[in-house]
Specification:
Layout (H helix, E strand, L loop, with lengths): L2 H7 L4 E6 L9 H7 L9 E4 L5 E6 L5 E6 L5 H12 L2 E7 L5 H13 L4 E5 L20 H12 L17 E6 L10 H13 L4 E6 L3 H13 L6 E5 L7 H9 L5 H8 L4 H21 L4 E5 L4 H11 L1
Parallel strand pairs: 1-2, 1-10, 2-5, 5-6, 6-7, 7-8, 8-9, 9-10
Antiparallel strand pairs: 3-4
Helix pairs in contact: 4-5, 9-10, 10-11
């Protein structure tokens, strides 16, 4: 079922989760062990992130170095299929520009369609670790909107090879990212909103936001989207803070602010266990306020913390 259908048919706020593929070498059981404690609350779908390969240099026996491409967390498509089969719910793969050329993208979309996957979250993705800024693959997409247009083209039966006539049409529901505190590469929120509006006009069906810790910023973002003529569902992305290190890591990596009240409370904690208690309570209060405001979905980034997410969700659903 499409995300938009889940939302339109719901009588109250829905629940969804996001997970990471396991590190290479671990089995699908690690995903089930992660998700099993969270399934009691009947999530509507589960997002599965995608991680591009990384360039590494491995030392050879002759002391020279060999350049190799390594994907530490493979398996997004297979994990989505496994989740759908095992739990009988929808899975939403992230789909990124980095690491794909357009033909590889088309083939991957065909695979997703054959598997009966109805939704994709289209993202540019991060720059490779050895790049100062994002660089597309040769023959690939530089911007998320270009990737999105390829998905929409396939929905209309338009393939790269122009000799394919009357090609089968896919039927993906397309999500795009939103940034309540603006994308870090955008000069200001107004231009960032215009980029988002361009994606909606190009066929995106819903917005899923970057994490945030101040609901006021989310509500202001939703209001600004409406003023800009963006009328698709906007799904808030939520994450707990569970240790002091995150107070510096999250702003640096995700370009989000930590409210003074939250950071002060975390800094007073003496152990990670105390940090978890503070972070859990903050997320509970965030979730209650968002649900009371009638958001369509509460989307939780589980990211290795299923116990914390379970403690939050059981207070909300």
């Amino acid at each position: 079922m499409k995300i938009t259908e889940h939302i339109s048919q719901a009588s109250s706020t829905l629940l969804s989760y996001e997970i990471l593929p396991p590190l290479k070498g671990k089995t699908i059981q690690s995903i089930y062990d992660h998700l099993d404690p969270l399934m009691d609350f009947n999530p509507s779908w589960i997002n599965v992130t995608y991680h591009r390969s990384e360039t590494m240099f491995k030392k050879k026996l002759d002391s020279t170095f060999e350049k190799v491409e390594v994907r530490k967390r493979p398996g997004t498509v297979g994990i989505c299929a496994a989740i759908m089969n095992h739990y009988k719910i929808d899975a939403v793969p992230h789909f990124i520009c980095g690491g794909f050329n357009m033909r590889e993208t088309e083939d991957a979309l065909i695979d997703l369609n054959f598997l009966g996957i109805d939704n994709v979250l289209v993202l540019r993705g991060d720059a490779a670790k050895n790049e100062a800024s994002f660089e597309p693959e040769p023959g690939g997409h530089k911007y998320a909107i270009e990737l999105q247009r390829q998905v929409v083209n396939l929905n209309n039966g338009v393939y790269i090879d122009t000799d394919i006539q009357n090609g089968g049409k896919t039927n993906f529901c397309v999500g795009t990212a939103g940034y309540p505190e603006k994308h870090f590469e955008a000069p200001n929120l107004e231009i960032d909103l215009q980029y988002t509006k361009d994606k909606i006009d190009a066929g995106a069906d819903f917005i899923m936001t970057q994490m945030f810790f101040d609901n006021k910023k989310f509500f202001e973002y939703v209001a600004a989207c409406k003023q800009a003529g963006i009328n698709v569902p906007i799904i808030p992305g939520l994450k707990p803070i569970t240790n002091k290190k995150q107070l510096s890591v999250l702003p640096r990596i995700f370009h989000v602010d930590i409210p003074t009240e939250l950071s002060t409370a975390i800094m007073k904690c003496k152990t990670d266990e105390e940090c978890e208690i503070v972070g859990t309570e903050w997320l509970v209060q965030q979730s209650k306020e968002l649900k009371a405001a009638g958001v369509p979905v509460l989307h939780y980034y589980t990211l290795g913390k299923p116990k914390v997410i379970r403690n939050v969700v059981k207070e909300i659903f």
